Amino acid sequence: MTLLPRMRILDRYVLALTLKPMMVSLGVVLMALLLERILRLIDILATAGAPIFIAFALAGNLVPHYLGFAMPAGFALGVYSAISKLSAGAELEAGLASGVSVRSIVRPLIALGVVLSVVSIVVVGYLSPLCRYAYREIINQSVSYAWRAHAPAATFISVKDGLTITADEVDKTGRNLKGVFIQNRENGVDVVTSAATGSLELTPDKTQIQLRLKNGAVVRDYGAERPSTLRFQDFILDRKFDLKAPPFRERGGSERELTMTELWNEMDAPLPSQPREQLAAEFHSRLARSLSLIFLPLLIVPLSMTMRRNTRIVNMAAAAIMMVVCHNALQIGETLADKGLAPAWIACWSPFVLFLGIALILFRTSTDRPGDTIISRAIDGVSDSLSQATRRVVGRFRTAEA
């Protein structure tokens, strides 16, 4: 005797139709988001003089964050694609005629939504906070603090303490420079240093990097007074750059770096690390977004069961609009709870309840007459009104011509 019921042929067929487009759309959305972010990271790293390959390590830590946003869209597209194929191929009509109910078709999709909801809680609730902290740690080590012994040509590099360095030419090693220009500020005075050549080298104790310049000048601008100019043949910049960044702060500097369990414990702590409103808003918003995946098929399936092409397109647009509105409503609720303008359980769960109510109404009204929903009736009403108005206008023109 098995503890779990055996999966029917219909359930496997519906899931097979759903999983393939869901995975494809999920991969496309995820790659689009990551590629856009990788391009920005490469620009940031190049400006800071950090190795470009770090961008891929940073992008890897962003996968859980973007996966939490892409999962609802991918699941919705998968469900819509599966039910649309059943409708377009007359399989849905044949199944309904043979006694298969709409509820039996939705059942495996709800089960898939439960699985995805658990995955979302793991990804958004636990993996994303850890990866967010790792992302910020890498940024601190490679961009915000340390300057690597490498400088790209014709690029202004912003180093720590307001120091900006550029060079006209850089050799393959990135350490020998020509046409060096340096701008910084010392004691409220703008200092510009230029040199014919320069080289990045280790300090005698081999713990830091120093910049040695040759054949150049240092100009200090004292405002109304005449600028001070110092020419040199061999000069070492009085700034040293550490090879390694100091240890990054401990995880938990933001509520987004805390896991679901840590958020729950901090909410009940006598002295929480963050304001309770922010902790509660983050906890409830994560949970509401994850649980909404369970009931997503109740919204998408009624809008997918139609044979008319024009209605199908409008239904797809309606489903997309509803999902965007629901996402923005959850975002607004999280912001209100974060600012302390409303309790988190009201601000974050009210959009969820509203979404669930709309989904239940659509599904309830489509079980007796599949494809006949409030939206389809509204479309038919608008279409009939436009047709009547067109006939009246055409009739008036004909009367005038007669």
Automatic annotation (TrEMBL):
<protein>
    <submittedName>
        <fullName>YjgP/YjgQ family permease</fullName>
    </submittedName>
</protein>
<feature type="transmembrane region" description="Helical">
    <location>
        <begin position="104"/>
        <end position="127"/>
    </location>
</feature>
<keyword id="KW-0812">Transmembrane</keyword>
<feature type="transmembrane region" description="Helical">
    <location>
        <begin position="12"/>
        <end position="34"/>
    </location>
</feature>
<feature type="transmembrane region" description="Helical">
    <location>
        <begin position="342"/>
        <end position="363"/>
    </location>
</feature>
<feature type="transmembrane region" description="Helical">
    <location>
        <begin position="313"/>
        <end position="330"/>
    </location>
</feature>
<keyword id="KW-0472">Membrane</keyword>
<keyword id="KW-1003">Cell membrane</keyword>
<feature type="transmembrane region" description="Helical">
    <location>
        <begin position="65"/>
        <end position="83"/>
    </location>
</feature>
<dbReference type="GO" id="GO:0043190">
    <property type="term" value="C:ATP-binding cassette (ABC) transporter complex"/>
</dbReference>
<feature type="transmembrane region" description="Helical">
    <location>
        <begin position="41"/>
        <end position="59"/>
    </location>
</feature>
<keyword id="KW-1133">Transmembrane helix</keyword>
<dbReference type="GO" id="GO:0015920">
    <property type="term" value="P:lipopolysaccharide transport"/>
</dbReference>
<dbReference type="Pfam" id="PF03739">
    <property type="entry name" value="LptF_LptG"/>
</dbReference>
<dbReference type="InterPro" id="IPR005495">
    <property type="entry name" value="LptG/LptF_permease"/>
</dbReference>
